[in-house]
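Render this sequence as a predicted structure.
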Amino acid sequence: MPVSVSFGSFGPFHSFGSHTGTAPSPFDALNGPRLAGPQGSHPLHSVMAQELVRTTDGAISGEIVPDRPARVGEGITGTIRMTATESVAAHGAVLRLVGLRLDEIRRSDEDRDSDGNVTRSEQWVETQGKLFVQDAFIEPVIPAALEPGATWEGRFAVPAPPLGPPSAHLGESIIAWALEVRWDIPRGSDHFVAVYLPVAQHPDLLRAGVGKQGGMSLMDSVAIGDSTIAVTSPLPAPAGAEMVVRVVWPSAPRGSRPARIELHRRTNAPNGAEGIIATATIDPAMLSSGAAEARLLVPAGSAPSFDGAGLEINYVIRVLVDRRFRSDAAIERPVAIV
């Protein structure tokens, strides 16, 4: 059965036994016990994606400043400024666009005695991250060797990921992007300067039907048998805005039981679950007359519709009629959110 979810319902877990979560640099600022929690917990619910990024490591200080917010399929321009705090002698230095997928993973462990009986068992949740994009650019040309106190400044122009995925916090998984300048240090840890880079979903990508998120999710009205579910407010629906839904369902079950119009989120995140994120109760008699209408508030901060990096999140409008002693009658349609 679907359940209501709240991404803010779990506080941070600053310590939980010896369990930790990890992500690769430059997304390793929170590596440790905060990225783990007990069975049934969601440690990522209390983590903001920008908290993951460590902005500098090694003998370089500086900043990477984009000119404007980034969006899937568009260009990213900006300025790099840096100062060497110590002598730097690297094999090379490049500007990179890196994408992180960070997932909550359910774990378990147990000990058994010589007879095979369980003497200790434990279940917990930890996070694991991997870079699914590591795009390096030959321009601008960044000096590989710097003397202490030396400074450098330059402009950059690089492409955003052409098809995404966009930045997204799914609650149980995170897609995050960063720009970094990385120096390849021989026989030592690389130096880097990094910045968190939010990448917004491009509505035109959804309209073009790229991936699984276009098509019917952007149609004003979708027919399901003898019924229709229409969205009269603009699509794709922005997070934080109201979505106006009208339903005509002539064959809807009759009776005094209530009916609901709901907005569901669905994800394939490893520790994810279907969730009802908005709901409105209506008189079922209004369904057959065509007068059923609801305003559903898309929660602010909802992840955009997307599929990429092996993750996906999509949304459906679901209309249910409660039937006594029988399963609910329901119809649904997809809907796109940005």
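Summary. The chain has two domains: 3-200, 205-335. The longest helix spans residues 203-207.
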